[in-house]
Amino acid sequence: MLVIIEVLVTVASQFLSTILISDFMDSSFINSNNLTEVGIFRPLGFTEAAWWRVPPASSWTFGELAESFSQGPNFHDTGHTYRAFIPFQDEAQRTSLRSFQGPAAVMDQRVVCVSPSFVDLRLNSTFPPRLFGQMTLGNESYPILQNMETQGPINFTCALPFPSKNTTYGMSSLCYPLLALTSNIQLEDPLVNINPDDRIPLYSGYNNPLASPMLIVLDILDGVAMMARNLENITTPYRVTTLHKDGPWSIIMNGSNTAALRVSSCFTNLAAKTFTVDMASSWQNWEPRLSWDRKSNSFDTESVRRQLGASLTPDSLNHRGVLALNPRSEWEDFDMRINAIENDFNEFDTYFHFTTTFLNLLPTPQQALTPPDFPRANQGILLSEANTADTSTADRSYTDIFKDVLHDTNSPALALQALITRGTQAAYYENLMREDPIASALTAFSSTALIPARWDGFVAGLTGRPVVPTTQRRTEARQSTSKLFNEEAKDSNSTSLGVNKEVMASETVDATIAELLSTFNELNSHVVEELNEEPSPLEFMRFVARNTPFVVRGGASSWKACQEWNSAYLLKALKDQTVNVAVTPYGNADAPTQHPDYNFSVFAKPHYEDQPFDTFLEYVVRHETDPNFPQDAEVRYAQTQNDNLRDEYMALYSDVQKDIPFARIALDKAPDAVNLWIGNSKSVTAMHKDNYENIYVQVLGRKHFVLFPALCYPLVNEKPLRPATYIRTEDGLVLQMDDNDEPVPFPTWDPDRPSENTTPFSQYAQPLRVTLNPGDMLYLPAMWYHKVSQSCTEEDEGFVLAVNYWYDMEFSGPLFPTSAFIRDISLANTSQATQ
Q1: Which InterPro entries did the record assign (predicted)?
Q2: CA-based nearest residue to 352, from 768, 702, 45, 730
Q3: Cβ neighbours of 297 (radius 10 Å)
Q4: 256-277: pLDDT as tens digits
Q5: Rounded to whole angstroms, what are the CA distances from 78 to 36, 105, 418, 544?
Q6: Are 656 and 604 in contact (CB under 8 A)?
Q7: Sign (positive or negative) of CA dihedral 308, 314, 317, 320
Q8: Mean pLDDT lowest for which of 133-137, 343-347, 380-384, 788-792?
Q9: 496/653 Cα distance (integer angstroms)
Q10: What are the backbone angles phi and psi of residue 584, rounded to the nearest 5°?
Q11: pTM for the structure as a whole
């Protein structure tokens, strides 16, 4: 037995001794379940915190179970959006939480907004501006709102921001009018069902707590139109009309019949209740920070809006960094050990705490500036970039989130829901740190540790080929060097000695480069790794660290683009749109090309021209599918690499993801560009490399990639090529030399014609080849050489379409300088050999 143990220990020691430091990486793993004490949310009575004036301390993550957004005639509905507050003050605990089973406060943050009608509507355009009159809702029928038919006219006086400039962006307000206690409009299927008793009216004083609170969203469309009377020195309020309804909005016209602002009436339930729930996440949770954009002079809210799901097409919960909440039918009531009637309404305090903190504490806007004879505004806040001196103006963090959601979705329901989430979270976490009651929850957190993530050292130990040159290769190099020195000794001519030294150095460099390429080929796979689902940000970062590609089969198959795009869809979406097209005679845009008038190759750039999209697409399809199409016809390819999907193809942008979540989280940046590519099999992209981390998504047709890492520079035969551009003439496309004679360094070796334009190292080429089918997603690492061709099948309708996301590479670290060093050594060696 001792002998066996000793053998095992020896083998293990020998195995472990081969592991290199570079084989270790930070890796995440989930700890086992443990009981953890958590706070039970029980409010401490009324608070006086003005949540709208203080920026949120964090972008707290949460658990969510949500229905899809829906819309109909005159309404928007976010759908039931159950969100559970995570009962941990520590951000590290919240973001590393992978599973939770225990008590948590849950709120249904569903918001329904409808377009109201008005009676005797008036606008005061002097300072402070007001919209007041009566609102009627009973004429409409919304199945999602109960008791609408019993609601009488609602008196309201809503404050508006004073537009300091004519703007249509970021000038809104939120208004909370007084309703009679008999008002009982209620969203269908409320989360909290309360049995009323005769004490309930004493709790609130106004606005029936059993009804869904109503908030009025007002948004200025035209500052000049709204303030026109003020500019004419007319100080009295004047009657305005509603010209039409636009979804959940009623458009308000000024006295000159110009659209001045829009109004929507929104309903939500802020009652919360503690349940025993399950929450889980397979990725690290995310609490993004707001960053200030100096160019726009506002907060960049994109990451926060993504986490909140404030979009018509929100990302998955994993991509948003949010935990998944188990189905409502599986929740269990948690015994708070209090009784509403016997204990001073503590139960009601729990249910209605957020109504108190989010709504009842709202201020009276512009109160200090309101003349005594002027109508006092209802409670509310100004969501405005101006008027910041008024205490009713919300902090820019709230204002910018609200205005950006409104601008991106045109939905008051989604904008208000984002505001509710942040405001109620601020109230929850302010209260949580002072909680005494505790309970136990079963939790599991992720941890990060340094563990072996690759086995280069072990492989090298087994194969006898370490990462550095082997003994045999080093001996051969020494023998080669010795031979050269012996030959030099026989020649006493100093010139000859100098030449031999240069030959010796060149051959030694050749051997070293050959060793580099051979070692890489032996230690790395010759196929692109395939995944069946998107990687987590941590898994993606491992590929980035190794500078290694992968393909996710079907990774984008659920995208609207992959499900609905075809020629008919594109022609409808881009009707009357002009697009920029690259035109070449052979599909050789940006490629080494033999100039017909000279005995050398040039870097051939395409002729660019604008074409109607329908004309362009028809040409591409006929060129691919029509056997009678001229064989020598020019090739057209939509390949502008200028973020074109967010420019000339903007009509299609909402059908794809705005970025790739695992890349955005791992790299901590948004894509520099999102590009659309449309062509056919006639176009080929010559081998080149880009300084971007590239996520390539195939939508229609097939793309065929040939890939080489950056260290393969010695085999691609880069040469300085004079630039030339195709121009359209009466005789067709002519390749004309550019006035700028600055040469373009570009690879001239073609992996599909491997015997031409070779270098001594082209024999070491072991390309990775991968074909992308519709719905596939490729990660192409920064600085990898790639040649791309394409093909169509019958179902592709004769054209190929793809989308790619460019993320700026990280230039610090060893990748870029090492690649530059290999290039410099190769260039110097080639120059020396030529001499």
Answers
A1: Cupin_8 (IPR041667), JmjC_dom (IPR003347), RmlC-like_jellyroll (IPR014710)
A2: 45
A3: 9
A4: 778 889 999 999 998 888 999 9
A5: 34, 20, 11, 37
A6: no
A7: negative
A8: 343-347
A9: 66
A10: -140, 160
A11: 0.60
